[in-house]
Design brief:
By secondary structure, this protein is an alpha/beta fold. Bound molecules: thiamine diphosphate (TPP). Thiamine diphosphate binds next to loops.
C-alpha cells in the first residue's frame, strides 16, 4: 500500500509550518507530481509553477497568510500557493475547468489571495499600496511581492520601483529569476540580471558581514553603522546593484530550490527594517524533463503526455489556428516588403510571430512585456514610412489604450494592430477574455476596426490594413479557423463594406467574426422551425460601418439582429443602433453579445456561452420571441 501523502494533510499554511524540515523535500515532490498530473490533463502554466515549489513552501514557512500578504505578479505561478492554502483535492484537479480552481489568483477565491491578477507587472505597485496602507493604519503585517524577472520589463513595475522608498519603510520583493519570460527574457534588464546572478561575490560578501553582525549582542546597531558606511563608500569603488540605487536592500542571488537557504534568507528579509529585494534563482519547469528542455512550450501548455512531453494531438483535419494563419501571412508580406515589421510584447509564439522571427529576423521585434512601449515604438516607426504590425492580444492591448488614442490614432499613423484572443479565452477567465476591444476602439477617431469571418478573410484584412494610410485594428479569436483554405493572392477589401451572405425578408442578422457561422446556423434553424426568412450579413467592419447597406435593409424588415463576441455595452450592436437612430430608422434591434459582467473561466466556449444565455438554442429562442412580440404589437396597433 502506498504511504499517505503529506500533501493530502495540508489544509492550510499552519499545516505547512507544523511539518519537520526533513519532511519538506517530500512535500515539494508531491506538489510537483500533483501539478504535473493536473496540468497534463487540463493544460496550464506548468513551467512557472514547477519553478516556484520550494520558494512558495518557504514563503508559507516564514510568513502567515492571510495576515501577511503575498502578491504574485501575473499570478500564473499561484498553483503551489493554492495547494498550500486549502485549495487542493478535487477543486485543484478541476483547475481551469468549470467549478474548479482558476488558473490565476482571485480575491474572491480565497482570503489567502491578497490580490488578483492575470496581466503582468501589477504586483509591485499593488504590494506597495498595501504596505503603505499598513503604515498609515499602524498595523504590523508583512507584504511580499513575488515578481518574475520579466515583470521588470514592464514599465509599471519600474514606476513602482521608483516609488518604493518614498512610500513605505517596509516591503519585501522577491525577484523570481528564471531568465525566461514566455520566451527567453529580453532587453538590458535581462542582461543586467544575468550579470548579477553570475557575479554574486560582492553581494555575498556584504550579506555574510551583515549576518555576522546580526548574530552579535547589540548587532543590530553595529549593522546599522555598517550599512551606513556601505552606502556612503561603496559607490566610490564598486558597483552597487540597481535595486540599491532605488533604495531597496539587495539580498542574493540565492538558490531558489534550496529550502534551507530560502527560509534563512526570507527570515532575514522579514526582520529588515527597510525595503528589501531577495533575488532568487529558479529553474522553470524543474522536475519535468520536457519542461526544462522546452521552457517556452511549457510556460502555458495545452494537455500533454507527462512521459514524453508531447501534446495531445488535435483531431485530424483540424483547421489551422488563426494565430498561425496570421503569422504565415505577415511573414509573407514582410518578405515582399522590407517596410513591414512585426512587433510583439513578449509573446512571439502566442501571437504567431515565431515564424517571422526565424525567417525575417531583421523585421521582427520582441520588446518584452511592454505593450505601451510596443505601440509607441510602432508609432515612431510609422512616422518614417515603415508599416509596423503590433501583434497584441485583445486583453493586453488594454494596457496601451492611451498610446492607441494619443500616439497612433490622433496622429493618424499607419500602424496595424492584430488582436488575437478577441472573444473568450475560456480556461483562463476574465483577465484574458477579449471582450472589450470593440467598445474601447470604435469610439476612437481615425480607427478602422474589423473582424474576419474566417482565416482567408483574416489574410485579406491584413493585406487591406497594410495598404491603408491610417490606423487599422483586426480582431480574431483564439483557436482554429474554419478550414476554408487561403487564396494564393489576398484581396483588398473596400473599407466599410459589409458582405451579404444570405438575403432575408423578415429578419436580418448582422454578425461579426465567428458569429457569422453561428448566424447562418441560427438562420437555418429559425427558417426550418418557424418559416421565418432570416438573412445574414458578414459585417466585416465595425468602423466604418456599412451604413448604406444597413439602412437600406432595415427599411424593409421589422427586426434586425446583431451578433458579436464582445460586451453588448458600446460594441458592434451599439454601433448599429446609433446608425439606425441617426438615419431616423425605427426598426427594432436585438443585440446578442456578452452581458455587463466579468465572465468566469470555464471548461469550454460552449459551456460558458450556455451559462450566459448565448447558446445557439438561446439565440434562436430570443430571436423567435422578439419577432413574435413585434408581430403581436403590430396587430394590437392595427386593432
Ligand atoms: C500585460 C501582459 N502582457 C503579456 C502577458 C503574457 N504573459 C503571461 S506570463 C508572461 C511571462 C512572465 O514572465 P516572468 O514574470 O518572468 O514569470 P515566469 O513565468 O518566468 O515565472 C507573459 C509575457 C501578460 N500576462 N500580461
Amino acid at each position: 500500500m502506498s504511504s499517505p501523502r503529506i500533501l493530502d494533510r495540508i489544509g492550510g499554511p499552519a499545516d505547512v509550518k507544523a511539518l519537520a524540515p526533513a519532511q519538506l523535500p517530500q512535500l515539494a515532490q508531491e506538489i510537483r507530481d500533483e501539478i504535473i498530473a493536473v496540468t497534463a490533463r487540463n493544460g496550464g502554466h506548468v513551467g512557472p509553477n514547477l519553478g516556484v515549489v520550494e520558494l512558495t513552501v518557504a514563503l508559507h514557512r516564514v510568513f502567515n497568510t492571510p495576515d501577511d500578504q503575498f502578491v504574485f505578479d501575473v499570478a500564473h505561478q499561484g498553483y503551489v500557493h493554492k495547494l498550500l492554502t486549502g485549495r487542493g483535492g478535487d477543486f485543484f484537479r478541476k483547475l481551469r475547468k468549470s467549478e474548479g480552481a482558476s488558473g490565476f489568483l482571485y480575491r474572491r477565491e480565497s482570503p489567502h489571495d491578497a490580490f488578483g491578477a492575470g496581466h503582468a507587472g501589477t504586483a509591485l505597485s499593488a504590494a506597495l499600496g498595501m504596505a503603505t496602507a499598513r503604515d498609515l493604519r499602524g498595523t504590523g503585517e508583512h507584504v511580499v511581492a513575488v515578481c518574475g524577472d520579466a515583470a521588470f520589463t514592464c514599465g509599471v513595475t519600474m514606476e513602482a520601483l521608483n516609488n518604493v522608498v518614498s512610500s513605505t519603510k517596509r516591503l519585501i520583493v522577491i525577484l523570481n529569476d528564471n531568465e525566461w519570460s514566455i520566451a527567453k527574457n529580453v532587453g538590458a534588464i535581462a542582461k543586467y540580471l544575468n550579470r548579477l546572478s553570475t557575479n554574486p561575490t560582492y553581494n555575498k560578501l556584504h550579506q555574510d558581514v551583515e549576518k555576522f553582525f546580526l548574530g552579535l549582542p547589540r548587532g543590530h546597531e553595529m549593522n546599522q553603522l555598517y550599512l551606513r558606511w556601505k552606502r556612503e563608500t561603496k559607490d566610490f569603488f564598486m558597483d552597487s546593484s540597481l535595486f540599491e540605487k532605488f533604495g531597496l536592500r539587495y539580498v542574493g542571488p540565492i538558490d531558489g530550490h534550496n529550502l534551507d537557504e530560502l527560509v534563512k534568507n526570507l527570515e532575514f528579509a522579514k526582520q529588515c527594517d527597510g525595503p528589501v529585494l531577495v533575488h532568487v534563482l529558479t529553474k522553470k519547469g524543474r522536475g519535468l524533463e520536457a519542461a526544462v528542455a522546452h521552457p517556452e512550450k511549457f510556460h502555458g501548455a495545452s494537455p500533454f503526455d507527462p512521459a514524453t512531453g508531447e501534446n495531445v494531438k488535435s483531431a485530424p483535419g483540424t483547421p489551422p489556428n488563426y494565430q498561425d494563419v496570421f503569422g504565415d501571412a505577415l511573414t509573407r508580406f514582410a518578405q515582399q516588403n522590407p517596410k513591414v515589421l512585426g512587433i510583439t510584447g513578449a509573446m512571439p509564439s502566442g501571437t504567431g510571430l515565431t515564424r517571422l522571427s526565424k525567417e525575417v529576423p531583421g523585421q521582427f521585434f520582441d520588446v518584452g512585456i511592454a505593450e505601451e512601449h510596443a505601440v509607441l515604438f510602432a508609432a515612431g516607426l510609422a512616422t518614417k514610412g515603415f508599416r509596423p504590425v503590433c501583434a497584441i492580444y485583445s486583453t493586453f492591448l488594454q494596457r496601451a489604450y492611451d498610446m492607441v488614442i494619443h500616439d497612433v490614432c490622433l496622429q493618424n499613423l499607419p500602424v496595424t494592430f492584430c488582436m488575437d484572443r478577441a472573444g473568450l479565452s475560456p480556461n483562463d477567465g476574465p483577465t484574458h477574455h477579449g471582450l472589450f476591444d470593440l467598445s474601447y476602439l470604435r469610439c476612437v477617431p481615425n480607427a478602422v476596426v474589423m473582424q474576419p469571418k474566417d482565416e482567408d478573410e483574416l489574410t485579406d484584412m491584413l493585406h487591406t490594413a497594410l495598404q491603408h494610410a491610417g490606423p487599422a485594428f483586426i480582431r480574431y479569436p483564439r483557436g482554429a479557423g474554419t478550414g476554408v483554405g487561403i487564396k494564393p493572392q489576398p484581396a483588398a477589401l473596400p473599407l466599410g463594406h459589409a458582405e451579404v451572405l444570405r438575403e432575408g425578408s423578415n429578419v436580418m442578422i448582422w454578425a461579426l467574426g465567428p458569429m457569422v457561422q453561428e448566424a447562418l446556423k441560427v438562420a437555418d434553424r429559425i427558417a426550418a422551425e418557424e418559416g421565418i426568412s432570416v438573412g445574414v450579413v458578414n459585417a466585416r467592419f465595425v468602423k466604418p460601418l456599412d451604413r448604406t447597406l444597413l439602412l437600406s435593409q432595415a427599411a424593409c424588415i421589422p427586426l434586425l439582429v446583431t451578433m458579436e463576441d464582445n460586451v453588448v455595452a458600446g460594441g458592434f450592436g451599439s454601433a448599429v443602433l446609433e446608425a439606425l437612430q441617426e438615419g431616423d430608422c425605427q426598426t427594432a434591434v436585438e443585440r446578442i453579445g456578452w452581458p455587463d459582467k466579468f465572465v468566469e473561466h470555464g471548461s469550454s466556449v460552449e459551456i460558458l456561452r450556455a451559462s450566459y444565455g448565448l447558446s445557439t438554442d438561446d439565440i434562436v429562442r430570443r430571436i423567435k420571441e422578439r419577432y413574435r412580440h413585434l408581430g403581436e404589437a403590430k396587430v394590437e396597433a392595427e386593432v
